[in-house]
Amino acid sequence: MVQMTFGFGGIILIEASLSFLGLGPQVDYTWGAMLDQGRQLMFQPGYSHYIIAPGLAIAWVVLAANMLGDGLRDRLDPRQRGRG
Q1: Any idea what DSSP says for residue 23?
Q2: Which domain range does residue 17 map to?
């Protein structure tokens, strides 16, 4: 279960990276595709949120998955029983 949560963050990063490069699913609503679309508008005034929103979403989901995995590891590790 712990490895699954750590792997989830990696899968999100891989999918977003491949979609950003145009190698992922050919849909416009993946976070990587949204970053690619926002990259084209990045330097136009008033359009910076098109790249900030999916970038923050990716970062928060990956961070949350890793923190969940770390918490599960701390909670379920039998070698840590009886300490702290």
Answers
A1: -
A2: 2-40+48-77
Please report, for residues 6, 37, 41, the alpha-carbon distance to residue 20 in angstroms, rounded to integers and kept in the order given. 22, 9, 14
Length of the chain, in residues? 84
Q: Is residue 84 part of a domain?
A: no
Check: CB of residue 35 under 8 Å from CB of residue 51: yes
Q: Chain centroid to CA 46: how far? A: 25
Within 8 A by CB and 6+ apart from 59, the residues are: none
What's residue 18's pLDDT?
94
What percent of the chain has pLDDT above 90? 55
Query: Torsions phi, psi of 51, nearest 5?
Result: -105, -25
Number of domains comprising the chain:
1
* Average pLDDT value for residue range 34-39: 91
Residue 82 lies in a domain: no
